[in-house]
Amino acid sequence: MSGGAPGAGMTSRPATRTLIPVHTRERAGGLPRPVIGWVVRVVVGWSAPGATVTAVTRQTTDQAPVEALVVARDLVKTYGAVEAVRGVDIDVWPGEAFGFLGPNGAGKTSTMRMIAAVSTPTSGTLRVLGLDPAADGPQLRARLGVCPQEDTLDTELTVRENLIVYGRFFGLSRAECARRADELLEFVQLGDRVHARVDQLSGGLKRRLTVARSLVNDPELLILDEPTTGLDPQARHLLWDRLFRLKQAGTTLLLTTHYMDEAEQLCDRLVVIDKGVIVAEGSPTELICEHSSREVCELRFGIADHAELATKVEHLGDRIEVLPDRLLVYAADGESVASAVHEMGLTPTSTLVRRSTLEDVFLRLTGRTLVE
Ligand SMILES: Nc1ncnc2c1ncn2[C@@H]1O[C@H](COP(=O)(O)OP(=O)(O)OP(=O)(O)O)[C@@H](O)[C@H]1O
Ligand SMILES: [Mg+2]
């Protein structure tokens, strides 16, 4: 693993500064609010391209410099001939919720596992909470909370015992573990299942227990790999609420999800990973503005040749997609598209005008077809 002593083997070069606009938190689907300030991003401790990055800080005009909690540069992970992660660069700032989106096999879990200090990078630089995960694994893991993609609960222990045993790994006293366990089981609403054995829990309940377990050591950085997969809508909303509260209390969140509504709700910033590389980065609103139109007009024509109809209406939008059951016309004003279609004498069996979503962006960037 690279990331040796600061400055080792580098030629000296001044820090770089970039002015970055700061927006207020944006509502999903809305337009970005006006710029309210600027930050100066200062990259320190690096020299030639590809050299080791030791820290990245940024400074708002009226605050002390803040150091990024996760800094990855040209991060690579290969498994034999499989190139799972092929040069990922990210900065995660304190207090933000940072999301990884990407199709199956894109490299999200491989990246998260390197950040969580359970898998060694093949090459590149990685700093987490100012530490090198390859060299400072135990120190780092003590300050991280990790909810892995696959549940790794002890199925023969009870719900409460799972949390207590896990807390003991962090050196917490038995009394402290018991107190944390009760608190966390209430937090994820498993208070009525404390004495159930884990192998008697449903998949969704296990998932909630895994999330509770990741919080036992009161982590500074919480890493959640598909935390809500398998949860029913009520449990998903419960967890969103809990994660939002944690974020408000200052915990930094790093998560992956396949639910685009979840990403829009929870994440301040996102990267879309495809085949091991980042293909887009920004807030949910920025990604929608950059990679989709403001609205989408969905037209269904029953049994019809959608490809032929597409040639008739394509001039009405910025882009058109032909699906087996409908046409999607991407445009700033979807109602105008719908009116124009009717004025042309075309009679869709149904017309739906909606705002563009992160799902539109995701499908545009990563394609509609399954790759693996
Ligand atoms: N331990 C491993 N040994 C060999 N190949 C692996 C291993 N772990 C992951 N891979 C491969 O690396 C690639 C990236 O996998 P990864 O689990 O990071 O994807 P992912 O984005 O998390 O996907 P998903 O959304 O399905 O969880 C895949 O091709 C996968 O098969
Ligand atoms: Mg995964």
Give a quick rundown of the structure.
The protein is of the alpha+beta class and 372 residues long. It has helices at residues 108-115, 137-141, 159-169, 174-187, 203-213, 233-248, 260-266, 284-291, 306-313, 334-343, 358-366, and strands spanning 16-23, 35-44, 55-60, 66-67, 70-79, 82-92, 97-101, 123-128, 144-147, 221-225, 252-256, 269-274, 277-282, 295-300, 319-322, 327-331, 350-355.
Protein model, in words:
With 372 residues, this protein is of the alpha+beta class. It has 2 domains: 68-288, P-loop containing nucleotide triphosphate hydrolases (Rossmann fold, 3-Layer(aba) Sandwich); 293-355, Alpha-Beta Plaits (2-Layer Sandwich), CATH 3.30.70. 29% of the residues lie in helices and 28% in strands. It contains 11 helices and 17 strands. It has helices at 108-115, 137-141, 159-169, 174-187, 203-213, 233-248, 260-266, 284-291, 306-313, 334-343, 358-366; strands spanning 16-23, 35-44, 55-60, 66-67, 70-79, 82-92, 97-101, 123-128, 144-147, 221-225, 252-256, 269-274, 277-282, 295-300, 319-322, 327-331, 350-355. It has a 6-stranded mixed sheet, sandwiched between helices. β3 (55-60) and β4 (66-67) form a beta hairpin. It is globular and about 75 Å long. The two termini are 29 Å apart. Residues 108-109, 149, 225 line the site of magnesium ion.
Question: Quick one: overall form?
Answer: globular
Write the element-wise H/E pattern from the N-terminal end onward.
EEEEEEEHEHEHHHEHEHEEHEHEEHEH
CATH T-level topology of the largest domain:
Rossmann fold
User: What is the name of the CATH architecture of the largest domain?
Assistant: 3-Layer(aba) Sandwich
Beta fraction: 25-35%
